[in-house]
Specification:
Layout (H helix, E strand, L loop, with lengths): L2 E6 L8 E9 L3 E2 L4 E9 L7 E7 L10 E8 L5 E9 L14 E11 L2 E13 L17 E4 L5 E4 L6
């Protein structure tokens, strides 16, 4: 099992929580495999509430109505100091992805919130294809043959300043 480092963040003295690293287990993987994100972060002060972590799979670039929340988890209580956990998410439901949009490039998003305030969003491109079938028309896509490759070296990280009190 290969582990891929998704990104490292720089230290900022303003945030109570600093996400240090996110790694994705098993990449590339079958489309039907779970996602396992190992998340490490530092907490510099006692928090009165849990952290919320959400993983969203973008099912169509044309409309957010096809987005699938794969996991929405609360983590806490959070200890001051270094923290680490694995966020396990099921694969997206192919029945909820519009016809003709299962193969090709899409996006998966990881967002972190505290008291309903988003302080981190990480996005990755995901390429779904059937090895050896490049250029062939696929009338019906067999999900068991689809391989997803999260482009971990192209993470888009957005951080927001929030009220940690």
């Amino acid at each position: 099992s290969r582990v891929f480092s998704v990104f490292h963040t720089r230290h900022s003295k303003m945030a109570a929580v600093q996400v240090r690293n996110v790694t994705l287990q098993r990449n590339p993987a079958k489309f039907t495999d779970d996602f396992d994100f190992n998340i490490t972060f530092d907490c510099s002060e006692e928090l009165s509430d849990d952290l919320s972590w959400k993983v969203t799979y973008v099912g169509s670039s044309a409309s957010s109505t096809h987005d699938q929340v794969l996991e929405d988890a609360e983590v806490g209580p959070v200890a001051v100091g270094p923290n680490e956990f694995t966020l396990n998410c099921p694969a997206p439901d192919p029945e909820l992805i519009p016809e003709g949009e299962l193969l090709g490039v899409t996006v998966i998003l990881l967002s972190a919130t505290y008291k309903e305030q988003e302080f981190l969003q990480v996005g990755w491109y995901v390429n779904n294809d059937i090895p050896g079938a490049e250029g062939e028309e696929q009338a019906v896509v067999d999900c068991a043959k689809v391989v997803r490759n999260v482009l971990t070296d192209q993470a888009r990280v957005t951080t927001h300043t929030i009220d940690w009190k």
